[in-house]
Structure formats: structure tokens, C-alpha cells
Amino acid sequence: MPTNESARLNALRRYRQMDSPPEEAFDDLAATAAALFHASVAAITLVDDAREWRKSLVGSALSEPEAVRSRSFSEAAIMRPDVLWIPDARVDARFAENPFVAGPDAVRFCAAAPLVTEDGFALGALLVMGRDVREFSESDAAALRRLARQAVTLLELKRTVAQLGSIVEKRKRVTRALETRTRDLTTEKLGLEARRQELEVGKHELEIRNEDIQDGVMLYEYASQRFLELFQGLPVACFCYDSKGRIFEWNRAFEAQYGLGAEATLLKEVWDAICRPEEAEAMKDLVAEVFRGRTFEGMERSDLRADGSLCHVLSNSFPIRQGDGTVIGGICANVDITQRKQAQEALRQSEERYRQTFRRHGAVKLLVDAVTDEIVDANPAACAFYGWSFEQLRGRTMAGILAFDDGRVGAEAALATAEQRPYHNLRHRLASGEVRDVEVHTGPVHIDGRLHHYSIVHDVTERRLAEMARDESELRFRSVTQSANDAIITVTQDDCIISWNTGARKMFGYSEREVLGCPLDMILPKLYSKVAPGDKSKVLNRTVEMSGRCKDGADIPLELSLATWSTEQGTFFSAVIRDITERKRYEKQLQEQMEQINSYSAEMEAHKSRLEAINRKLEELSKLDGMTGLKNRRAFEERMELEFARAMRYAMPLSLLLLDVDDLKAYNDAFGHPAGDEALKAVAQVMQSSTRGVDLVARYGGEEFIIILPHTNSEGACTIADRIRAATENATWPVRPLTISVGVATLTPATMDIPAMIEQADWALCASKKAGKNRVTHAAALESSETIKA
User: What radius of gyration do the chain's Cα atoms show?
Assistant: First the structure.
């Protein structure tokens, strides 16, 4: 518990907020915090001696307004002066039974800013929580601090209004007492006038009564002075006005908030001093209503400062009455909520941009609940495409729109994954019954902590039809062009050309009349360059490449396929010749590209080697404590599992040291946290230099360190522990000497597992602390099993 717990509880009671009813202002602040940090749950809590009580709770499934203090996030928050950040509460043993973690909310991260009053008491905390694991930046912490200060300001306002009401009520009672006394004195005076003779006899009594009147006047003046002192000391901008709306009293907070001096304030109408011109009439009506006895609480308004800037305020106005109930003035208290309004406006604009983008986009857009498969939102383009109104489309399931059965949908999903496509090819049924081909681009989005699918649907029916028509056209074109582009020639056994198609004419430039009866080597001069003339065995029934000669004398690369067939008239040969000029050019380009790809592959291999080296370095850094340079808790847990298994398997000695810097909190309070961080680094260096190479020194958490001592029995462990303790005590410290306390545990047959061994070292450390600190205690030296758990 905090060292000032008794004073803190007294301060909490003065605010009288525990077990008070919910209030919209606190709920708005909690909701703003949840929206600002994209958190599913937010709460404003107060902590007494046993409970965490929730003044406000938004986004939670919990119904209980309170929880046990020892299990709460707020308990941890009020123990520290700054924002508490818990990236993953599920792995933090302190919060295993926390209702937000173990309950239906199942939160993971939590950020908590303590609600600290001006006199330094932490009354509770502002909590934001979510179901994901998250890190927290300094800008996030600053924003959370500002919201926490707003929560404290609300508490101060509630307390101030209550105090002000009490003072006003006391003033009324004094006024009524004085008026009653005055009436009594007037009645007595009339009686004494009629009984002039008796007045002399009661002179002494009258003098006493006159003294009572003087005492009452003094009491009234004292009460008035106390009211003015309290009024001036309020942190909330307050001012008083008469029936004409003229300001006749104001406090220092009013001058600071509005930037107005006495000349610009005294006897100025409220609507001229701080109101925007368009709100002047409304303020005049409010003043009139206050003088009719009405009270206005929690009104949000935008006022003008002296420099012309807007000041958003939460305003409370109520009448000032005499003892007989007559309204003699009005008082107004304005809390500056400009920062809160700016945050709300930024959130509203962000949501409006999303809505405008969603609604006005010409593409079909759907928002689908990932759990129920129901459509929860659709833009006008979607309604126009499907033919249903928004009300008809909302609530329909995607399964009801799909024209596929579940098997085909699953097959398409698998195919899209295999092809690494960012979309699915599906078929959707419209309201008219027509089925359309669609491409659906889908991505996940979380709304209020619930998973949804954000889908963009493209109608590709016409495109698919066009593609089918194109494929058919290409097939027909290919069959025609293949017969037209290839030269098909028939020759006799003596190589005399007897047939010549259109493709041959286009390829070689000769007409059929020009080549009929001519030898084949007129167009294929190198056909027999390596064989005897007429020997076609090397090219028969296979495809070979050679050059051909055109009518203009140009040589072109060709691909020749030669087949033979026989009739009664003799043996003939059919040649199918294809111009491969383009293919040769492509092959050359491909070769150049392959050379370039090989070069890129070499560069990629070098880049891969560099990345592997960087990853190894990152792996090493992930196991280091960022401040001290020692191994962190993760590295300790991995090494401890290895050493514990080795010691158990081979019956080898193994010891563990748990060390804690004595009175580090007092050191931080005296010299500041930066000095405390430097002290922890120095202690870490002492530990590192006092241990062996086989030992592992790690930062366990906060000011706690832990050391694994392989092959070390209890006696050796105590020797090493005392050496580290003495080295720390005798080290040179810049501002004040520091010492450490050490708990030692050694593996025994009774040790069940690693947590048991750590628990033994922890109990031994507690014993060192209780025995006066700056000492070493071995778990085996503790007296009974009730003191240490085996």
C-alpha cells in the first residue's frame, strides 16, 4: 500500500464520491478515453481500504460496480507516480484473478493513469483496456495523463460545488438567525417603548442582548470573509452577477481562463464579457431564469477569451438567495473542457471521413459481421447493385446472396490462397434473381472489439463474357493463322516443288507459278550442306533449324519439319516450314534476361546473408535488458530451463540467487528516477564483474536481479552471493551508498520445478529484508516448512 495510505483515505472521504450514482460527465470522459486509444473498455475508479469502486465503466460486460482492491489494476496504478502500462495482463501474475482479465472482457493490455490531487494523493485511476497486446508510446502516456487530469478536475468541481452549497446554506442559516433576531429585537423595542419605565429596570438585559447582536454581525462578517477566500481559491472559473447580468465578483481562475482583467470584467454584462454574439440572447434568458430561482447544471457552452479564441466550458449556474429565499444574485462555475472537446471533434471528423468515403464511393461496399455472416452496413452503390433497400440488405447473410454452394466457395478460397490473389471469384444473386459474376476484395477490420469483414465487390459479368468471346475468337484466329503463316510445300523424290501454299508465298516472296517445278534448294540452299545431295535421312520425321533464302536474296531462320508419303505415282515429301525470326530474337532477349536474373540472384543471396546476420543480432538484442545491458527475463527463463533439466538429468548441483537493491524507492524519491536508473546500471556492473563466465546475470524486474549458478552447491552459492553483496557495499557511489539483499536457493531432490526453486529464493530474499537488509540468506536456513514452501 502507499506510504501515505491513511492520509490518502482521509482525502478520498472528503470528496464523498464512493458509492455515488453514475454521472454522464464521467461516462463521457471514459468513453472519450476508450475512443482515443481504440480500447474496448475504459473505467474511472476510486480505491478505498478494500475496494476498487468504478465511478464510470464503459464497454465492459461486467455488472458489478466494484472489485477486490488487491486484484485490481488501480491498486498497481496508485502505487506509482506516473502512467502504468501493462502490455499483456495475462502473463502478469498480479492480475491472474482480475475480473477484467479473467472475466468476459478478457482484456490483454491495460494503461492506467493515477488520479492525483493537487496535494499529491492518488484517489484512483483512469483505465483503458483492450483485448490485444499493445505497446504504449510517450505521446499516448501524455494524452492519458491529460484525461486523468480532466477526471481530477471533475472530482474537484463536484467537491467545490458541494462545499460552495454548504457555505451558501450556512450563510442562509446565519442570515435567517440574524433576521429572526432582528425581528425579536424590534418586537422587544416596541414593547420597551410602551414600558419606558420598565426599560431602565431591564437596561442590563438589553445591553447583553446588544452584545449578542454584535456577535452575530461579527459571525456574519466572518462567514462572508471565509466565503470570499474559498471563492477566490477555487480552481474553477467562477463569477457572480446581478439581475441585469452585470459581473460584480469573480475569482482568479476566471481571470486566468478568460484572460480578462478588472477593467474588462467589473460591471460588464456577461454576454458582452465572455459570450459569443450568437449566444448573447440565450445568456440573457439564462440570467432571467436564474433570478426566477432555476438552477442549471452540466451545460456545455463555447465562450470567447480576451484574445478571441474559443473556450469550451461545462457550466453550472444557480441563484444566490437571502434568508427569506429572495434571489439577490447569480453565481456561475465554468470548467474548461476545451481539450476534451478538441479530442471529441477529432474523433468525430475521423468517423465522418470514414462515413463519407464509405457512402460516396462508387464501388459496391459491404461491412459483414465475421461471426454471424450478417451484413451490418452497405453503401448506396451496394443497394443499387443488389436491388434491395438498405433496410432489406442489412441483416441478410452473405450465404443468402452467394449463388455457390459451400463446397465451391471453399474451393475458390483455397484457389485464391494458392494463386496469392487478393480477391475471390464468386457469383452473387440479386434481388431480381439474376446471378452476376463478381470479384470480392475482403479485409479484416475491428469495430468495438468485434471482427468484421470489409468487402469491395466488383461486377465482372460483362468482362467475363468478353473474355470468353475473346478466347473463342483467338482460337479461331490461331487455327487460321497457323495454316496461313506456315509454309506448306510438297516436293518429289527429286526435290522438285509441286505445291506451294499462301503461307509459303508470304514467307519467301515467290508466287506459286514462279516456284512450281523448281528445286527445293532454291529456297533451302543449305539443306544438303552436311550430307550427300538428296539424302534426307537427317531431317526426315523431325524438326530441324536451318536458314532459308527469300526471293529478295535475304536469308531468314527457319524451322523445318519433313515427312514422307507414297502413292502409286511415287514417293513425295511434305515440308512444313515456319519463320522463327521472332523466336530467335526472343531467345536472344531471354538469354540476356537470364543473365540479368542470375546477376540479381547473386545480389539477392548477398542481401539474404546480410538479413540473416541482422536477424541474429536482433535475436541477441531481444534477450537484453535495455537499461542495464544484462540479460532480460526471457533470456533467464530460457537458460533456466536448460540448466534445470541438465541438473535434474545428471544430478549436478544448481543454485539460484535473487537479489534486490535495498531502499531504491527512497533513493529515487531523494535523487530522482534518472539517478536511480544510473544506480541500477552500476549495480548490474558490480554483479557482472563478480560472477563467473558460466553464470547468467539477468534483470528480473524493477530493482530485482537474478543469477543462475550452474555446478554450484549451497556453500559455493552463499560465497558468491556474499562476494557480490560486499562488492556492492564497498563500491564508490556518487550520491549515497547502496546495498543489496540476497536470497539463495539450491536444487534438492524435493524441488519440484523451476517456479518452486524461484519461490524458495524469493522467501529467502524476504528473510534477508526482514533481518535488516544488506545480507545473504539461504532458503535451507529457514526454520520450518511454514516459512518456506518446498
Answer: 45
- ∠716-691-667 over CA atoms, to 5°? 110
The x, y and z cell numbers of residue 425, run together, are: 471469384
637-648 b/e (C-beta count within 10 Å ≥ 16 → b): eebbeebbeebe
Looking only at the bridges linking them, the beta strands covering 776-778 and 740-746 are: parallel
Between the alpha carbon of residue 175 and those of residues 170, 321, 325, 329, 331, the distances in Å are 9, 10, 10, 15, 18
Using CA atoms, how far residue 575 sits from 303, 483, 497, 563, 569, in Å, is: 97, 13, 10, 7, 19
Residue whose C-alpha is closest to residue 430's, from 452, 455, 453, 461: 461
Catalytic residue among 52, 269, 643, 703: 703
Residue type, 265: T
End-to-end CA distance of the chain: 28
Distance, in Å, from the CA atom of 175 to the CA atom of 167, rounded to the nearest integer, reads 12
Residue 730: pLDDT over 50 = yes
Query: How do residues 132-165 score in pLDDT, each as one tens digit?
Result: 999 888 999 999 999 999 999 999 998 888 888 8
Convert the pLDDT of each residue in 209-231 to its tens digit: 666 556 544 644 554 565 566 56
Q: How many residues does the chain have?
A: 790
Q: Are the beta carbons of 559 and 582 closer than 8 angstroms?
A: no
Backbone dihedral angles phi then psi of residue 111, each to the nearest 5 degrees: -120, 130
- On whether the pTM is more than 0.90, the answer is no
HEC profile of 465-508: HHHHHHHHHHHHHHHHHHHHHCEEEEEECCCEEEEECHHHHHHH
Active site residue 786: no
Strand partners, 365: 456
**Cα–Cα dist 566/556, whole Å:** 30
Residues 6+ apart with CB under 8 A from 437: 425, 426, 427, 459, 460, 461, 463, 464
| pLDDT for 222 | 52
Nearest 10 degrees: Cα torsion 602, 603, 604, 607: 130
